[in-house]
Amino acid sequence: MKTITTGDEIHNSSNDNNVYLFPKMLDHYQIQLTRMLESEQYSEAKRLLRFLLQCKGEDVRHYEEWGSLLTWLDMAFPDLAADAYGEADSGGKDNDSEADETALREQMLNPSGQDEAYIKQVLYIMEHHPMLDQQLLALERAAYIQSPEVDTAIVDWLTTARDLHPLLQFKALQCLRRREMSGTLELDRMGERVQFDIETTPLAMDDFPQPIGRILERVEQVTEADDPTLPHFARELWKESLQFLYGSSAYAWMLREDDDTVDCWAAALHLTLLLTVYGSANDDDIRDMYGITDSLRFRYEQACRALRQVAVLQRAEGDDPQP
User: Which residues are paired to 195 by β-bridges?
Assistant: First the structure.
């Protein structure tokens, strides 16, 4: 059976000897691995590599590359215990390992020597680096800098820079919230002028309003019958989409409490999920599953269009450096 999984499910699938990757999923995981290494998420990178090494049917050179990289990570970071990857029997050990990784990551992002040169370097990378991943990493570092000039620099950059990537905008808002800023910012986002309250910026999926969770739950209930791993990838896809659409008119529409809105967005997410994983989907079947009648057809297609826009921006993110 061909199965897919995300970082949250890797340790559960790693004991399955019949796991195959769909072609698009291999590309997805390779990109994820690169981002983990660039952002110094070494524990997650190890976990992903162990999962990939147990998948079947890939090119031999891929296994050689993954094995060599895992060996290097094990040698370079031996303190990141194997317990974090589902190899321990004790949940307590898992928690200890996660705490150790969190502490190590914070130490890397928050060095003791935060002199003026370091602050200027972080802000320069945030504003000018041609690679989006490096800008995102600079924002993570900026959250730990104890200097009021950083607040001003991020706000000025957000409000004056042209054509900022929507993911970069969202992460910058999160950075400001972590720095305990408050107040409102007005930004050009996804072709709209949007006002944001900094202190309500979601830092995790649980921070989003309840209707956002209802949409995901609807998809999880429907997809689980077809493939028990699909709900996990649906969560990852939904999380990524929300980071792009947050604050937009499409996002405001998601927040409506009515069942029709939940059904339209859930059907659109399900369609996008199948297109991402399998490369094809039956639109008629999906509309039937979610009760998308003719009266809801236009709203459903609007939701599909919004998620397609996110997919286009993500492809552009992978193909081209930031100007």
Answer: 186
Q: Which of 29, 30, 26, 23 is nearest to 7 (CA)?
A: 29
Angle, CA 84 vertex, CA 61 and CA 6 arms, to 5°: 60
- For residue 208, report the phi and psi dihedrals to the nearest 5 degrees: -75, 150
Look up tokens 């945030």; give the residue.
126
Angle between helices 132-142 and 23-38 (to 10 degrees): 40
Judgement on whether residues 315 and 303 belong to the same structural domain of the protein = yes
CA neighbor of 170 nearest in space, from 247, 107, 236:
247
Handedness of CA 293, 212, 12, 47 (dihedral sign): positive
Q: Is the full-model pTM beyond 0.85?
A: no
The answer to whether residue 4 is domain-embedded is no
On whether both 168 and 257 belong to a single domain, the answer is: no
- From 61, 87, 107, the end of a domain falls on 107
> Domain containing 302: what range?
205-319
pLDDT tens-digit profile of 40-73? 788 888 888 888 888 777 778 888 888 888 888 8
Distance CA 168, CA 166 (A): 5
CA dist., res. 32 & res. 46, Å (int): 12
Co-location of 310 and 241 in the same domain: yes
Residue with the bigger pLDDT between 119 and 39: it is 119
Asked if 44 and 142 sit in the same domain, the reply is: no
> 246-278, pLDDT tens digit by residue?
999 999 999 998 999 999 999 999 999 999 888
- Same domain for 166 and 62, yes or no, is no
The number of domains in the chain is 3
